[in-house]
Every structure is written in C-alpha cells, then in structure tokens.
Specification:
single chain; 71 residues; alpha+beta; Aspartate Aminotransferase, domain 1; 4-stranded antiparallel β-sheet; 2 helices; 34% helix; 23% strand
Length: 71
C-alpha cells in the first residue's frame, strides 16, 4: 500500500492491490478512484469515531498481510 496524495483533511488516497480492495469492500464502503492504478479514496464523516478508525486500520493491515507477494 502507498499513499498517493498529502493527507490534508478527511480524505486519504492510497494504491492497493485489487485483492486487498475487494476484501476491504466486503465490510467498508469506499470508492476506487482510479481503476487503472488501484488508487482508492477513503473518507471520514463528521460522526466517525476513534473506534471506527481503529477497526478500519486493523482490517487494512489484515487484508494487506494476506495479499499476494508483490501487491
């Protein structure tokens, strides 16, 4: 995973392997910003809690850990 733009507000852009994106989208709704590169856009809402962020971060780490080598 690589961040692709500066984090300036409530949005994060990152490039993910397609398998990681698919796995995360089973539980978390987010947009694929650029299908060609695998760039995704993650947003937080006004009511996002620290627990929500922690749960999402844990799922990202878990999904990335089982991604095929080189993803």
């Amino acid at each position: 995973m690589a961040l692709t733009r500066p984090v300036e507000a409530n949005a994060i852009f990152a490039v993910l392997a397609p398998e990681v994106t698919a796995r995360l989208q089973e539980r978390w709704p987010f947009y694929v910003w650029n299908e060609a590169t695998g760039e995704v856009r993650w947003m937080c809402a006004w009511d996002t809690t620290a627990e929500d962020v922690d749960a999402f971060a844990a799922d990202v780490a878990s999904a990335a850990a089982v991604a095929p080598a080189g993803s």
